[in-house]
Design brief:
single chain; two-stranded antiparallel sheet; alpha+beta; two-stranded antiparallel ribbon; binds zinc ion; globular
Length: 78
């Protein structure tokens, strides 16, 4: 899984490297068919059902979003 982290998205656009669809600008975040998940420090914005993760996963106090996605990125469900 390729992870892109932004600390300041002002004036930034992000395009999917597979289909070229714009999936993020400084006003909105969208998904294309290749997006597996989007998250911010506030929580998950989108989780693809192919990952087999609940819509609003409970993170343990010691589990950051990065640690959580690292654990789940190696075992996607077909
Ligand atoms: Zn795409």
């Amino acid at each position: 899984m390729q992870r892109v982290e932004l600390s300041d998205s002002t004036g930034f656009t992000l395009h999917c490297p597979f289909c070229g669809e714009q999936v993020m600008n400084d006003e909105a975040i969208d998904e294309c068919e290749h997006t597996l998940l989007t998250a911010s420090d506030a929580g998950f914005e989108y989780i693809d059902p192919r990952l087999g993760i609940s819509e609003d996963p409970d993170l343990d106090e010691e589990d950051t979003i990065d640690e959580f996605t690292d654990r789940h990125s190696s075992t996607p469900t077909p």
